[in-house]
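Record 1 of the preview.
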Amino acid sequence: MRITLLGAGAWGTALAKILQENGNHVTLWDRDTDLLNKLQGGANEKYLPGVKLPDDWKIQPDFAKAVGGAECVVLAIPSQAFREVVSRLKGHPAIFVSVTKGIEYETGETMSRILREYAPADRVAALSGPSFAREVALGIPTTVVCASESEGTAKTVQGMFHRPEFRIYRSTDILGVEYGGALKNVIAIAAGVSDGLGYGDNTKAGLVSRALAEMKRLGVASGAQAETFAGLSGLGDLMLTCFSRQSRNRDLGERLGRGETIQAIEASHPKLAEGYPTAKSAHKLAQDKKTATPIIDEVFAMLYENKNPKQAVRDLISRAFKAED
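->
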C-alpha cells in the first residue's frame, strides 16, 4: 500500500520502519524539516539513537505532497496538535490510523472521534497496546491491538502492520482501546510518584489494581466496553507503563515523588510526557461524566495545583470505606 506517516518521533519512526519492511511504500512527514533530512540517511538519532532505519522510504516536508495519493494515513501526532493536522485531511479518501494516546481537553474526545469529524467512521482505526517505540524498532517481540468500528478496516490495518515480531490483534471497541491507552499514562505518573516516595511493591500493586477499575469506570461512562480494559490496551499497557524504567510518564511521577516541582521538571525537559496534558483532560472528562476517579484526581492536583505527593497519598488512603468494584 501507499502509506503516509505523519509525525516522525520515536513511535512514528518505529511504525514507519515496520510498514516499510512489510513491503509498503512509505512516505514520512514531520513539521521538523531538520529531523526529516536526517531520516533520509537511515537514522533518527534524536529519538531512536543507534537504531538502523530504512534508507529507501520517501521523505516529504510538503504536507499536501506527502498525503497526496496515500491509501492509508497513519497519524503519530501529539494529542495537542492532532485536530489542527487532521483538519487538513478533510475529504481525503484514505484509511486513517491514529497511533496517538490522548484525550482532547475541550471536548473529552479521543483521537478517533476527532478523525470522525473529517472522515467516515468505517475508514478510521486506532492502534494501541504495550509497546515502547525503541523495542518495536529493534524487532523485540511486541503485541498490540488495532480497533475500528469496521471489521474490514481493522483487518486491513492488521495486515499492514503484522510481522513475526509484531503481532496485531483486532477489536471493534475503538473507544475502549483509546481510553485505555490514554488513561494509563495518567496512572503511570501515580506509579512513579509511589516509586519516588520510596514505597514498595505492595503499594504499586494496589495502585495499579484500583487504577484499572477506575479506568474501566470512566471508559464505560464514556461509551467503551468494560471487557476491553482487561486486554492489551488496558491492563497490558498499564503494566508496561507503570513498572518499566523506560516509561517517561513513570519517570515524571518519580521526579514529583522525590520533591521536584512540575515547573522544574518542565524546565529541564520542555516536552513533558503525554500523561501531563491527559491528566487535565481526564480530570475534566470525569467531572463531565460525574464519575469517581480518585487516583486521576490526585494526579491532576499534584500536576496542576502543586499538591504535596505525600498528602495526595494520605487523602487517597483515608477515603471512606467501600466495597471493591
